[in-house]
Design a protein that fits this description.
The protein is of the alpha/beta class. It has one domain: Rossmann fold (3-Layer(aba) Sandwich), CATH 3.40.50. It is built from 9 helices and 9 strands. Strands 5-4-3-6-7-9-8 form a 7-stranded mixed sheet, with helices on both faces. Strands 1-2 form a two-stranded antiparallel ribbon. The two termini are 26 Å apart. Bound molecules: S-adenosylmethionine.
């Protein structure tokens, strides 16, 4: 997915939306996006999806199979929508780690969860999905919701998530994907490249971040490609469910 630049010692490049940037710059550019949108992130999620992101997340929780006493990692957890539900499900004998690379998103998530009285079974960790700072075979379930497409080396992130899962543990990847009908695809393109940046401009005074959102979705691997990447990383029984006509897909894989 990442390509070397021409010339023998040139740094490999990767995509940032539709631009190609040196790999070392992508994380900083992604960080700028999420620093900029953090304060209005939840509001924009509801506006952009008409609230449907809540249903996508509810289905993720249902498929996670998380039970009381489990240990769960919500990586790229941002403002903590999944973490809040997991905290309730695992109960006082369980543990949830909300991890995110971005201090602004983590702060909004932490404040929100503490304000809503989430129990003391949640901890907050600033971490990169590519290099998770947790022991091997540690979690029963790892989730990454709308995070993987922002990661520079997705294969490294998938391997890192596999490492920290216990054998039999589940990885759930909730992410934008490829609409299954061409008609829906056209309507979705029109929406994403006109209305989304306009909403971003009006609500956050930042059209560029929402243009990046639309572009990064188009550059993200489709359903079958992501499934193959999860298999290559070492997951087994990898399946996916399309939601909202494939605009979003939930992939699940098990650590052997
Ligand atoms: C679109 S938000 C999703 C937040 C939350 N999971 C949700 O579904 O509402 C994407 C999050 O991924 C985080 N992120 C981006 N790159 C990351 C990385 N390499 N490691 C960990 N988190 C990352 C961003 O900081 C941001 O909070």
């Amino acid at each position: 997915m990442n390509e070397p630049r021409e010339g023998s010692n040139a740094e490999p490049t990767t995509h940032f939306g539709y631009q190609r940037v040196p790999e070392s710059q992508k994380a900083r550019k992604v960080a700028e996006v999420f620093h900029s949108v953090a304060a209005k992130y939840d509001l924009m999620n509801d506006l952009m999806s008409g609230g449907i992101h809540r249903l996508w997340k509810r289905f993720t929780i249902e498929l996670s199979g998380v039970r009381p006493g489990n240990r769960v990692l919500d990586i790229a957890g941002g403002t903590g929508d999944l973490t809040r539900q997991f905290s309730r499900l695992v109960g006082p004998s369980g543990e949830v780690v909300l991890a995110d690379i971005n201090a602004s998103m983590l702060k909004v998530g932490r404040d929100k969860l503490l304000d809503s009285g989430v129990a003391g079974n949640v901890s907050f960790v600033q971490a990169d999905a590519e290099k998770l700072p947790f022991p091997d075979n540690h979690f029963d379930c790892v989730t990454i919701a709308f995070g993987l497409r922002n990661v520079t080396h997705k294969e490294d992130a998938l391997r890192s998530m596999l490492r920290v899962l216990k054998p039999g543990g589940r990885l759930l990847v909730l992410e934008f994907s490829k609409p299954t009908s061409s008609l829906l695809s056209k309507a979705y393109d029109a929406y994403s490249f006109t209305l989304l940046p306009l909403m971003g401009k009006l609500v956050t005074n930042d059209a560029d971040s929402y243009r990046y959102l639309a572009e990064s979705i188009r550059m993200h691997p489709d359903q079958e490609t992501l499934k193959a990447m999860m298999v290559d990383a070492g997951f087994e029984r990898v399946t996916y469910h399309n939601m909202t006509g494939g605009i979003v897909a939930l992939h699940r894989g098990i650590k052997p």
